[in-house]
Design brief:
The protein has 297 residues and is α+β, with helices and mostly antiparallel strands. The chain has 3 domains: 80 residues, Uridine Diphospho-n-acetylenolpyruvylglucosamine Reductase, domain 2, CATH 3.30.43; 126 residues, 2-Layer Sandwich (Uridine Diphospho-n-acetylenolpyruvylglucosamine Reductase, domain 3); 65 residues, UDP-N-acetylenolpyruvoylglucosamine reductase, C-terminal domain (Uridine Diphospho-n-acetylenolpyruvylglucosamine Reductase, domain 1, Alpha-Beta Complex), CATH 3.90.78.10. The protein is built from 7 helices and 20 strands. The strands form 7 sheets. Strands 6-7-15-11-12 form a 5-stranded antiparallel sheet. A 4-stranded mixed sheet has the order 1-2-5-3, covered by helices on one side. Helix 3 packs antiparallel against helix 5.
């Protein structure tokens, strides 16, 4: 593939046929034709321009949470961010700028340590800032979207763009950022007492530890909560808590989590998703909507 050779000539060190199971929290996923980690704006832009010139599809990969990659993998370029994009900076008394590759828990704790409040509800979100912005990550107590002042990104051609607050659309587990490569975001938070904020963060972390299977291979919540319902409760009422298909199972701790507990393939997870959807719909008439993204072939 000449476009991969072009990536090599540009010094982008592409990994050929890279198993994406190495880059997802599910530890599931077939190979990418080429995998690049861009560590600067220049590298990110060059990757996009080379792929665009060759008419090659590009998939943006964050922490690899909230994501199921099918067993056939992903054709084209899988582009991840690192290096400069892992930075967290505090440019003003109530402001924080977070790179897209910074981990959400790290961002929340850093803000707390600097006496900034607002993001405590998302400290348990297992993802990177870029992915959190794209899907407006959050919990019942709050989401990231309301705090975003601006987002720096690259368009599909690799050209820089800045989206201001009034141009951003955040909805339940979605945004209008899906077609852009998010590089960083500026968030405005509230000043508070460091000790009080840290205490809230600790409570949120402890609550997650007690209620979610954070030490297993999973993607977080599999399904969105339907209006007026909780997906976990509906799955448990359908009798599927702990149910196993191949190497995948419905978590015995939290029924809205599917775990890779025994070398699961994507096909195992998809079979379990179909079974859950059918059982819940038969029992309640409610069609569950996936929160987990499914990509690849």
């Amino acid at each position: 593939m000449d476009w991969i050779a072009e990536l090599e000539r540009a010094g982008l060190s592409p990994l050929r046929d890279e198993p994406l199971a190495r880059h997802t929290s599910f530890k599931i996923g077939g190979p990418a034709d080429a995998f690049v980690t861009a560590r600067s704006r220049e590298q990110a832009g060059a990757s996009l321009r080379i792929a665009r010139a060759a008419d090659v599809p590009v998939f943006f990969l964050g922490w690899g949470s909230n994501l199921l990659v099918r067993d056939g993998g992903i054709r084209g370029l899988v582009l991840a961010l690192g290096g400069d994009f892992e930075k967290i900076e505090f440019p003003g008394p109530e402001l924080v700028r977070a790179g897209a590759a910074a981990r959400v828990p790290q961002l929340v704790v850093s803000c707390a340590e600097n006496g900034l409040s607002g993001l405590e509800p998302i400290v348990g979100v297992p993802g990177a800032v870029g992915g959190a912005l794209v899907m407006n990550a959050g919990t019942r107590e709050g989401e990231i979207g309301p705090f975003v002042e601006e987002v720096e990104a690259l368009d599909p051609h690799g050209a820089p763009m800045t989206l201001l607050r009034e141009e951003l659309v955040f909805e339940y587990r979605s945004s209008n950022l899906g077609k852009s490569l998010v590089l960083s975001a500026l968030l405005r938070l509230k000043r508070g007492v460091k000790a009080d904020i840290m205490a809230v963060v600790a409570r949120q972390q402890q609550k997650r530890l007690q209620t979610q299977p954070i030490h297993t291979f999973n993607v977080g919540s599999t399904f969105k909560n339907p209006p007026g319902h909780f997906a976990a409760q509906m799955i448990e009422q359908s009798g599927l808590k702990g149910h196993v298909v191949g190497g995948a199972r419905v978590s015995p701790m939290h029924a809205n989590f599917i775990e890779n507990f025994a070398g699961a393939k994507a096909s195992d997870v998809l079979a379990l998703v179909d079974l859950i959807s059918e059982r819940v719909r038969a029992a309640s008439g409610v069609k569950l909507e996936l929160e987990m993204r499914i990509v690849g072939e």
